[in-house]
Amino acid sequence: MKKGFTLIELMIYSTILGVFLVVLTSLFISTLDLQLESESTANVATDSRYIFSRFSYDMGRATNITIPASLGQETNSLQLTIDGDVYTYGLDNGLLVLVHPDGTDALSRVDSVVSDLRFLKLGNTDGKHSVRINFTVTNGLKARAYQTTIALR
Fold first, then answer.
1. Interior CA angle at 67 toward 44 and 62, to 5°?
2. Is residue 63 part of a domain?
3. Residues 6+ apart with CB under 8 A from 83
4. In this model, does residue 69 exceed pLDDT 60?
5. Rounded Cα gap, residues 117 and 49, in angstroms
6. DSSP SS3 for 64
7. What is the model's pLDDT at position 147?
8. Which of 16, 28, 36, 144 lies at a 20 to 30 A Cα distance from 137?
9. Is 33 within a domain?
10. Are the beta carbons of 99 and 90 closer than 8 angstroms?
11. Is residue 1 domain-resident?
């Protein structure tokens, strides 16, 4: 009696192994996709929180909104006067940047894209002015639009 496998047994084992490998591969790819999506969502949330915090911080210290200049005007940059110095927010190739007396700071991640940045000056002629801020943060597959209104103190 000869020991070994028949051709049919080898074909059955190969088929079972092939199905097993296909299932494992698809599970692995799904896990990677979920991880990338989760990472993108977290990056968008982190960027937006930091941007909101920085806007609130600088608006709280500002004495004047230079750009947009008049009530109801909408621009794609924001210029504030803080302690006599000029601080300007704007976009530079998808990065939100802040230009100030000490230099220029990027306020968003290099792998995130900030777009649709708009500042609308609100308020009244004899009161403290405020700015409505709109922007969209995109990171990987995730994009989220934001809007907030912040007033001078």
1. 75
2. yes
3. 61, 63
4. yes
5. 16
6. strand
7. 92
8. 28
9. yes
10. yes
11. no
Q: Average model confidence (pLDDT) for the chain?
A: 89
Count CB neighbours of 11 within 10 A. Answer: 11
Distances (CA, A) of 99 to 1, 6, 36, 62: 86, 76, 32, 15
pTM above 0.85, yes or no: no
Q: In b/e form, how buried is each residue of 27-66, taking b as 16+ CB within 10 angstroms?
A: eeeeeeeeeeeeebeebbeebbeebeeebeebbeebeebe
Domain count, the chain: 1
Contact present, 100 and 78 (Cβ < 8 Å): no
User: Taking Cα atoms as reference points, which of 113, 151, 108 lies closest to residue 133?
Assistant: 151
Residue 9 structure tokens = 């047994």
pLDDT band per the 50, 70, 90 thresholds, residue 109: confident
Residue 132: helix, strand or coil by DSSP?
strand
Output the six-digit token pair for 132.
């409505």
Tell me if the bond preceding 68 is cis, omega within 30° of 0.
Answer: yes
Q: How many Å apart are CA 80 and CA 66, to the nearest integer?
A: 6
The domain in which residue 106 lies consists of 7-151
As separate numbers, helices (DSSP H) first and strands (DSSP E) second, the chain gives 1, 9
